[in-house]
Specification:
The complex is a heterodimer of chains A (about 600) and B (about 120). With about 600 residues, chain A is α/β, with parallel strands linked by helices. Chain A is built from 24 helices and 20 strands. Classes of the chains: A alpha/beta (about 600), B alpha+beta (about 120).
């Protein structure tokens, strides 16, 4: 490699590539050639910085200048001003929400200052397709340390002492899982990585594989050493093409340097990895279904025990962890269990990555210490709610989780607090809802998802979720009856208790938690036939406020069913019988004279 | 990979290449790159700095460019900044001179007094 005076980091995660970051990169390369700076400035593509709604993002070093929403047309100005003349282009700098303060320095942006990055430590900072950049950040030294200084049992003790819990959803102690797999006798064992991320809105696993694939490879090799396995599989969904490609490149690079393969570091330890592609079924994120899918069968779960640590892939002892769990391992081995256990709360150690989505200013990926309050996440890091609307609730754990209502916004987020609220950590999707979201509709949305993704093997999940969805659809259409609430509760309990796997056991959670915190909304839908948030169209009536209407007639012209009538310069009238509640008239009215209630 | 030492060697090389992404540095070389500097040959000077860092395998050096500090008659100007030390500004720098500045000032910590233009 050569030394360059400036490195320009271009985010090439899925978020930014969808906003043309690769075009920006190509334009940067062209400009650098045109300005004859090819020996001075180097363009580097990296993984995700986490600030996805500001993409495409570029960071210019050595200054650490953070430019956002750079489109290919801006590149010429950045190259001529910044690269050639050394002047920062302030128009493209980040602006903190609700103020005009522009921040040039990447480390000083509030979105980043509250974060602590362990699993995402290299994402956005290194080129994921260059193993040397990972090694420069002490990459593969944890594997070296484990192989040369520690016994397998000592490695497991470190993981146990660190208090790391599985980041895929259940939150089971990673160290114990490793211990079980280690203790099961057998010549052939497997290490498997669950990268079948399926929660709507969660994308941390994708981001780690795209931005720092070597951290997962290194951790799996360490796990192989700890439990006595020589072969690993990464089960990743085919819908993540960039992640799959980068992981493939990373595995090949690790093989060519001898960090995977035979006799690693001359210690006699062999380990290799292969990728298995999933077809994108949500149920394959469940461990037994995932293993069945790797074996080449239809992805359906089976009863536990036996647990995979005893009888897993091809009936051999198998260690299965999630991407984010693995990404923590090298840091724990290098920095020690005490360092990791020093972060977080009493029973939830370390940090957690959350995918912020929904009604929030800074959509993206963040990593915070366990125990950070929801308020800090939503307001300080997330930048609050767009349009100054009121925070109503946050859904954690995706379709398996539940909501945290506004009066509990000071809740410190960790595994146990979320469970106590009837939600769960899940993989870390965090969907923010404001006053214009209907909680019944949200519950219906998540149930629609789980109902569709139910594999159909066990009746409680297959039939039960369908029945629950039917009731919810009826309620949102204004046909709910008072018994519906009780029926939902009975069905929910049955499905939770009787389902075979985690998908069914958690599927009713969104309904139960909205019933717990927002029962009044269900009641207004069922009894008053009203949707307080104004979302469920069947329950709304549209009408014209006579004082505001100027009688321009625009609404009558756009109405597709001819439900609006009136005389020019006199208030118009909407015929509720004919109205299909499409909302076209509200959009078009210039005087805000049409409302829905 | 036969041994940890092999991995260490890769890390040392890679760290050098990535040192300009660190916020802490051993020395920073600032080359004035306004129109006056470039016409006087600042670009050749800058390229020499980059070459020297590569061939000498120097670690933790940052190279940046600045605008015109107003001393156009003394261009090309190169400023060497080390943490905790005053800034040393050299005038009329040539590729040959900058090689010497790197060897004497950056590596051996002995500023070359006769080429300095700020003697504080």
């Amino acid at each position: 490699m050569e030394f360059y005076r400036s490195h320009v980091l271009v985010c090439a995660g899925t978020g930014c590539t969808s906003t043309e970051s690769l075009e920006v990169r190509d334009a940067l390369n062209k400009e650098i050639e045109r300005l004859n700076l090819t020996k001075e400035v180097k363009i580097v593509t990296t993984g995700c910085f986490g600030f996805c709604n500001l993409g495409p993002i570029i960071v210019v070093y050595p200054e650490g200048t953070f430019y956002c929403r750079v489109n290919p047309d801006d590149v010429r100005e950045v190259a001529e001003e910044h690269f050639l003349k050394g002047r920062v282009v302030s128009r493209l700098l980040y602006k903190e929400p609700d103020s005009d303060i522009k921040v040039a320095d990447f480390d000083k942006i509030e979105f980043f200052t509250h974060q602590k990055r362990v699993a995402l430590r290299n994402c956005g900072l290194i080129d994921p397709e260059k193993i040397e950049e990972y090694i420069a950040q002490d990459g593969y030294f944890a594997l070296g340390k484990a192989l040369s200084e520690l016994t397998p049992q000592e490695v497991i003790e470190i993981i146990k002492k660190s208090g790391l819990r599985g980041r895929g959803g259940g939150g089971f102690s990673a160290g114990l899982k490793w211990q079980f797999a280690h203790n099961t006798p057998g010549n052939v064992k497997y290490v498997v990585c669950n990268a079948d991320e399926g929660d709507p809105g969660a994308f941390m696993d994708r981001s780690v594989l795209e931005g720092d694939p070597h951290s997962v490879i290194e951790a799996m090799a360490i796990a192989g050493y700890a439990i006595g396995s020589n072969q690993g599989y990464v089960y990743v969904r085919a819908e993540y093409p960039i992640a799959v490609r980068r992981l493939q490149i990373a595995i090949e690079q690790a093989r060519s340097l001898g960090l995977l393969g035979k006799n690693i570091f001359g210690t006699g330890f062999d380990f290799d990895l292969d990728i298995r592609l999933g077809a994108g079924a949500f149920v394959c994120g469940e461990e037994t279904a995932l293993l069945t899918s790797i074996e080449g069968h239809r992805g359906e779960p089976r009863p536990r025990p036996p647990f995979p640590a005893v009888e897993g892939l091809w009936k051999k002892p198998t260690l299965l962890n999630n991407v984010e769990t693995y990404a923590n391992i090298p840091a724990i081995i290098l920095k020690g269990a005490e360092w990791f256990a020093g972060i977080g709360t009493e029973k939830s150690k370390g940090t957690k990555v959350f995918a912020l989505a929904g009604k929030i200013n800074n959509t993206g990926l963040i990593e915070v210490p366990m125990g950070t309050s929801l308020k800090t996440i939503v307001y300080d890091i997330g930048g609050g709610i767009p349009g100054g609307k009121k925070f109503k609730a946050a859904q954690t754990g995706g379709p398996s989780g539940g909501c945290i209502p506004a009066h509990l916004i000071d809740t410190e987020i960790d595994y146990d607090n979320l469970l106590a609220l009837g939600s769960m950590m899940g993989s870390g999707g965090l969907i923010v809802m404001d006053e214009s979201d209907c909680m019944v509709d949200i519950a219906r949305f998540f149930l629609e998802f789980t109902q569709e993704e139910s594999c159909g093997k066990c009746p409680p999940c297959r039939i039960g979720t369908k029945r629950m969805l039917e009731i919810l659809e009826r309620i949102t259409e204004g046909k709910g009856v008072p018994e519906d609430i009780e029926n939902l509760e009975v069905l929910a309990e049955t499905i939770k208790n009787a389902s075979l796997c985690g998908l069914g056991q958690t599927a009713p959670n969104p309904v139960l938690s909205t019933l717990k915190f927002f029962k009044d909304e269900y009641e207004s839908h069922i009894i008053d036939k009203k949707c307080p948030a104004g979302v469920c169209h069947a329950l709304l009536t549209f009408f014209v406020i006579a004082e505001k209407c100027r009688g321009c007639g625009l609404c009558a012209r756009v109405c597709p069913v001819g439900a609006i009538s009136g005389k020019p310069r006199e208030p118009y009238i909407i015929d509720a019988e004919k109205c299909i509640k499409c909302g076209e008239c509200i959009e078009k009215c210039k005087f805000d004279a049409i409302v829905k209630m | 990979m036969k041994s940890l030492d092999e991995l260490k060697a890769i890390r040392e090389q890679a760290k050098t290449d990535l040192s300009n992404r660190e916020t802490e540095y051993m020395a920073r070389v600032e080359v004035a790159m306004a129109t006056c500097g470039i016409t006087a040959g600042a670009r050749e000077v800058l390229n020499t700095v980059l070459e020297e860092i590569t061939t000498r395998n120097l670690k933790n050096i940052q190279v940046s460019q600045t605008g015109c500090p107003g001393l156009c008659y003394n261009e090309p100007l190169v400023t060497i900044v080390k943490p905790g030390q005053p800034r040393f500004m050299y005038g009329k720098v040539t590729p040959d001179r900058v090689r010497k500045i790197i060897a004497q000032h950056i590596i051996n910590d002995q500023p070359i007094k006769e080429w300095l233009i700020n003697l504080e």
